[in-house]
Specification:
Blueprint lengths: L26 E4 L11 E5 L4 E4 L5 E6 L1 E10 L7 E3 L5 E4 L8 E10 L4 E10 L7 E7 L5 E2 L5 E6 L7 H5 L2 E6 L5 E4 L5 E5 L9 E7 L4 E2 L3 E3 L2 E8 L3 E6 L4 E6 L2 E7 L10 E6 L2 E9 L9 E9 L6 E4 L17 E3 L1 H8 L7 E5 L3 E2 L13 H5 L38
Parallel strand pairs: 3-9, 10-18, 11-19, 20-28, 23-29, 26-27
Antiparallel strand pairs: 1-9, 2-4, 4-7, 5-8, 6-7, 8-9, 10-12, 12-15, 13-16, 14-15, 16-19, 17-18, 20-21, 21-22, 23-28, 24-25, 25-26
């Protein structure tokens, strides 16, 4: 069945590289003569002095030769200090929230050399008026103070989609921190409607993930601007996964890699098959109404209990007492995974949003973007979707040359997914 309440995928418009706005201000050097002949560090900062119409997403760019940034202070025209933090590579200082329109800010940056000598530069700039260009709406599917499963991808959806030319600028404003560290990368769907962040392997239970999509006021191309600055911090819970095999009509429930229960299922019938692939639980509903009137192969309204969404297109796991006689034997649904009422209730107490659900042996393959499909590709394929260079430690190993007798192969293109009940 297909739930008539579909996920609304919105988009965010974003803009240019952090503040590459031009020249530098006059430097002020201190410590002259105190450290012998050692030269003070060379320091360049942006935006330039008296820069106008600076984007609200502005960062203070820093470039140092012969030292490191030792202090950054930004105040607005009312004397209030702006909170922020440096980028990991030290290339810029990022305000914690968008700057205010038509305000003047003063940034003072100090670099300290190995000798102890310092160089300080100061710049004053004015931000642009409130943007009048249409905003790209972004939706962050990662909520604050939650506990997610180990396959939870950080997912951003954009409406309208982000053009290929603008994705690098947007991606530069997407920040993820993990504790303990478990680095990953972002990857875009081909159409630019979604971007996912994950690591090469599933998150370790107990990991804390902090996300910021700093897109508010960010120029995206010539015609759009980012709509919002969104942040969330949540934790990863226990490791749970579900494996459903169409050949046996059984669901295997795994916890920490060990089988804890098998549950008979009825999947989509041949005319409305369930998708095969790696999905992630997106939502959980104690009660839901599936209204498919006006949908292909639909025309019915039914109330269900203990429903867990797997795709945007309407594939769920849910209690289906009407098909208990078929479960474990025959596929009779419209694409959903039917389990008994008792099993569905039990599953709701075991699973989490973000748990991996793997289907195999059905008639169609899961399509990219039909749900949170970050795990439905290998890591080698996933990193190809990044709009920015992937750090060396995360790049796939070079492919070995094939044996002379090897036969080239590959997976067929995914067939269209089907909604069901």
């Amino acid at each position: 069945m297909e739930l008539r309440q579909r996920l609304t995928l919105f988009a965010v418009t974003v803009a240019a590289t952090p503040l590459v706005l031009g020249g530098c201000t006059t430097e002020r050097k201190s410590g002259a003569g105190a450290q012998g002949r050692a030269a003070p560090p060379e320091l360049t900062i942006t935006p330039s002095e008296r820069a106008q119409d600076v984007p609200l997403s502005a960062e203070v760019g820093t470039a140092v030769k012969g030292g490191r940034i030792s202090a950054v202070r930004i105040i607005d025209d009312k004397g209030v200090q702006v909170a922020g933090e440096p980028r990991e590579d030290g290339s810029a200082w990022v305000p914690s929230r968008p700057l205010q329109p038509r305000r003047t800010y003063t940034a003072e940056v100090t670099a300290t050399g190995d000798s102890g000598k310092t160089t300080t530069r100061k710049t004053t700039f004015t931000t642009m008026p409130k943007p009048t260009k249409p905003a790209i709406t972004s939706t962050l599917y990662f909520t604050d103070n939650q506990t997610y499963g180990t396959a939870m991808p950080v997912t951003l959806a954009f409406d309208p989609p982000i053009s290929k030319e603008a994705r690098a600028d947007v991606q530069r404003r997407l920040f993820v921190k993990t504790n303990p560290p478990q680095p990953g990368t972002w990857s875009w769907l081909d159409d630019g409607s979604q971007a996912y962040y994950r690591a090469p392997d599933f998150w370790r239970p107990g990991t804390t993930i902090s996300v910021r999509a700093g897109l508010g006021g960010l120029p995206i191309g010539k015609d759009w601007v980012g709509d919002a600055d969104q942040s969330a911090t949540s934790k990863i819970g226990r490791q749970v996964s579900l494996e459903i095999d169409n050949a046996t009509k059984q669901m295997s429930v795994m916890r920490d890699g060990k089988l804890i229960r098998r549950i008979p299922v009825s999947l989509g019938k041949p005319s409305t098959p369930t998708s095969s692939g790696k999905m992630v639980i997106m939502e959980k509903h104690q009660y839901a109404t599936f209204d498919t009137r006006g949908e292909p192969n639909g025309g019915y309204v039914v109330d269900v209990e203990d429903a867990q969404r797997l795709t945007n297109g309407g594939e769920f796991i849910h209690g289906a007492p009407w098909s208990e006689g078929d479960q474990g034997k025959t596929n009779v649904s419209h694409g959903c995974t039917n389990v008994s009422a008792a099993a569905a209730d039990w599953l709701m107490n075991v699973t989490q949003v973000g748990d991996l659900v793997t289907f195999k042996g059905t008639e169609v393959q899961l399509q990219p973007g039909n749900g949170w499909t970050a795990w439905n590709v290998s890591w080698d394929e996933f990193v190809k979707g990044s709009a920015l260079p992937v750090p060396a430690g995360l790049r796939p190993a070079p492919a070995l040359a094939p044996h002379p007798g090897a036969v080239a192969g590959g997976s067929p293109a995914p067939a269209p997914s089907v909604t069901g009940d």
